[in-house]
């Protein structure tokens, strides 16, 4: 089966991106992506208007050559897993990503890196359990780098907890192609290998994987280069990447379900 590429994590001028929604979607079409999700930040730094984002996505969909998903990248505010989005926003959002940052309360106060690693996992697990709207963990474990937590501290036991919470709540683990950026002061071959170990373990437990460029300008759309390297190192076939069904499909653009049904006939 040919891969139907989906870039499920991008930013626009609605938060800290440089390009507008229309240009991001145009680019995805030109690059031959099947789907682009617009997932601007909802945090204390940006006012987020989901209705406006949804309307702009709907308008752009009329001339789009790919599926368009109107989403958000919410912040996991604390170790209990509360998200930065208000309940009344949820009906306007077709995809919710959740990210930890250095301000996630209760995660980084401990002086022990092992404890901080445990807390990072706990915050993600609680976010999965607490928020039925949460669909994707954005660049999981990126925050380990600035928090001085070595990736080797994410043991099989911790990853088991995370994998279980993801599976039980249908939350995907994102392969974000710029993940290495947070770890750039470390030996990058080692970082890539270690992240591949984590991805391999999580995928082995049956957790869905998704792709995200986290592009902040149209030029970054569909950049999955490092993510693909991780997949290769983890010995995971591209067909393991989950297809997220677009809730408002663009007419005339293929969806994975339809494609699979067709190929079974031959
Ligand atoms: Zn992002």
Structure description:
With 266 residues, the protein is α/β, with parallel strands linked by helices. The chain has one domain: Metal-dependent hydrolases (TIM Barrel), CATH 3.20.20. Helices cover 34% and strands 15% of the residues. Strands 1-2-3-4-5-6-7 form a 7-stranded parallel sheet. Strand 4, helix 3 and strand 5 form a beta-alpha-beta unit. Helix 3 packs parallel to helix 4 and helix 5 crosses helix 6. The longest helix is centred in the middle third of the chain and has 18 residues. The two termini are 12 Å apart. The C terminus is likely disordered. Zinc ion binds next to loops.
Which features would summarize this protein structure in a list?
single chain, 266 residues, alpha/beta, 7 helices, 34% helix, globular, disordered C terminus, binds zinc ion
Structural class: alpha/beta
Query: Strand percentage, roughly?
Result: 15-25%
Number of strands: 7
Radius of gyration: 18 Å
What's the CATH architecture? Alpha-Beta Barrel
Mean pLDDT: 94
The CATH H-level superfamily is Metal-dependent hydrolases
Overall tally of domains: 1
Q: In percent, how helical is the residue content?
A: 25-40%
CATH topology: TIM Barrel
Strands of the biggest beta sheet: in what spatial order? 1-2-3-4-5-6-7
Determine the N-to-C terminus distance.
12 Å
Poorly predicted runs are 261-266
Bound molecules: zinc ion
Identify the overall geometry.
globular
Q: Could you give the order of the helices and strands?
A: EHEHEEHEHEHEHH
Number of helices: 7
CATH class: Alpha Beta
Strand count, sense and closure of the main sheet? 7 strands, parallel
């Amino acid at each position: 089966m040919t891969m139907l590429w989906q870039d499920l994590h991008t930013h626009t001028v609605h938060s800290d991106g440089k390009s507008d929604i229309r240009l991001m979607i145009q680019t995805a079409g030109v690059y031959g992506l099947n789907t682009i999700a617009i997932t601007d930040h909802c945090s204390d730094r940006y006012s987020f208007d989901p209705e406006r984002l949804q309307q702009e996505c709907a308008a752009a969909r009329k001339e789009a050559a790919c599926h368009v998903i109107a989403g958000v990248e919410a912040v996991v505010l604390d170790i209990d897993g509360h998200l930065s989005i208000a309940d009344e926003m949820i009906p306007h959002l077709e995809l919710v990503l959740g990210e930890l940052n250095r301000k996630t309360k209760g995660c980084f106060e401990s002086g022990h890196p092992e404890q901080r690693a445990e807390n990072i996992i706990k915050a993600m697990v609680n976010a999965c359990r607490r928020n039925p709207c949460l669909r994707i963990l954005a660049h999981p474990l990126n925050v380990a780098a600035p928090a001085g937590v070595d990736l080797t501290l994410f043991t099989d036991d911790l990853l088991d907890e995370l994998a279980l919470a993801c599976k039980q709540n249908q939350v995907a683990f994102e392969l974000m192609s710029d993940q290495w950026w947070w770890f750039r002061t470390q030996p990058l071959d080692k970082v890539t290998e270690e992240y591949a170990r984590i991805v391999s373990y999580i995928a082995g437990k049956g957790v869905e994987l998704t792709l995200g460029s986290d592009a902040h300008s149209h030029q970054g759309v569909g950049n999955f280069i490092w993510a693909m390297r991780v997949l290769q190192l983890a010995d995971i076939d591209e067909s393991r990447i989950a297809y997220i069904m677009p809730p408002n499909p663009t007419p005339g653009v293929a969806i994975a379900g339809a494609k699979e049904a067709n190929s079974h006939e031959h």
